[in-house]
Amino acid sequence: MLAFAILLSYAAAMFPVLPLDLKTYEELKEQANPLFDLLMKWVSDLGELAIAIALTAIAMVTLAVRRHWIEAIFMLVTTSSVLLTFVLKELIHRTRPFPIDQNGTGIIQSINEYSYPSGHVLFFVVFFGFFAYLAWIHFAGRRRVIVIAICGVLILLIGPSRVFLGAHWASDVLGSYIIGTIWLFLLIFAYQWTVRRKYHDPKVNPYIRRV
Q1: Distances (CA, A) of 134 to 112, 172, 190
Q2: Claim: this prediction has a pTM higher than 0.70
Q3: Helix, strand or coil for residue 169?
Q4: 146-156: pLDDT as tens digits
Q5: What Cα–Cα distance (Å) separates residue 85 from each residue in 27, 53, 63, 80, 179?
Q6: In angstroms, rounded to a whole number, what is the distance separating the alpha carbons of residues 183 and 45?
Q7: Biggest alpha carbon–alpha carbon distance for the chain
Q8: Per residue in 175-206, is it b (16+ CB within 10 Å) or e — as a string?
């Protein structure tokens, strides 16, 4: 997976458009209708910086109120996807399919200007992926299924929405899914290690539900 991510990132740096990009964009545009347009716009808006910050804050506060301090801290750590996005965009410098408003300076300007990887997709994979992981550990029954299903659907939809809206090429989105998954796994491993350290026992199972 890492090797494919590196290869795709290199291709994105070398070529402004890959063969699958135009075809995917055209196929998604053929699905256009008022309901589909609204769904794509709504999902994409959830990844905007202000909303992403609000979602992270809500998750942190909810966990902190329940005294799940480690989980709250790691929900904050999921925002590292923003820094990862900035670093990769600066390294690859791939232009977007269509011009967008260049608002902000520094990190914000770089994230707005360059196309690879998609910050929205990276955020969704890492944030909602980790939230789904916590739900799998801590929840049971219908609540567990519902939370994981919602997170999964949002992760699946964010990629096509960014391509449909012309913010990214399909290769941007594909690379973001792969990079985000690798980053998510690293966070999960770090979380498991932290839980074991907390209980001072390397045999503690981080999958045990503590709620």
Answers
A1: 31, 28, 13
A2: yes
A3: coil
A4: 999 999 999 99
A5: 27, 15, 26, 9, 10
A6: 22
A7: 56
A8: bbbbbbbebbeebbeebbeebeeeeeeeeeeb
